[in-house]
Structure prediction request, 289 residues.
Amino acid sequence: MEHDGGAGDLAVEVYRDVAGPSAKIIGDTLGNVIRLLVRPVRAAIAKSDERYEQIAQSVNRRMSSIPPERWVEPAANVAGPALEAARFAAEDPPLREMYAKLLATAMDSHTAVLAHPAFVEIIKQLVPDEARLIKLFSRRDSFPCARIGVDGALFGGPTKRRFDVPFYSTVTGLAHLSSPIQVEGYLDNALRLGLLHRTDSPSTCLVTDETPEEFAESLATTLSHPKMGGFDTDEERARIMSELLPVLSLVTLEPRDAWCYEAWTLTVTEFGKHFCAACVDADEANRMA
Prediction:
């Protein structure tokens, strides 16, 4: 049957006339946007020689303290991905130094066995603040955490149990983070990566009618106790109290309400310790703690 060039063909022609130029404009605009967005990546690739030099200097600094007879060629499945990934982290010192430490670990016959290929992928999934946080894992095995709020049950107060402060950890003030408000997310990522394990305390809740100062002192004593993974020292308790008092100002108590909290511990896994041994400079971690 011969086609009569009716409404269907007309619609196609109209679409071509109208959509064709628009599609070209959209395509050109999208291309420009993409080129703009990937400009930093292209710049990083263009500066690869300079970035490799930065990494090389960091590795050389570490290798200078290792006897030459222990120098070995690093495994290709560690060195190759590490050097490639390090190009895009060269301007982030905490991440750059992790890659450099991993490469130096892989080039020392005494430690090469620690340099697991998976560690490159772990570093790639970190932001600089998380690298700062992980430095502490090589120094401290555990970090007490708590959520803090109100419960009216003990004294017949009007408030049902509620947690106005959903997360506090003793690690926050130790890691010198750029964005301490993000610490819970950082620790969640470390849990996801298998570097940490959560252990709930056998006694997870306490309700008290103390003043904020008394409650902060009581909670600081609990969180600094060795059973919670803390450090039982006057200095540690004072540090925790100084962090808790501003936090407690966020909690609203009505008459006859009482403070409450739930506590747990984040513990560095064996895999996490292995990662720290391969990727974290012990001397730097010691200075931070």
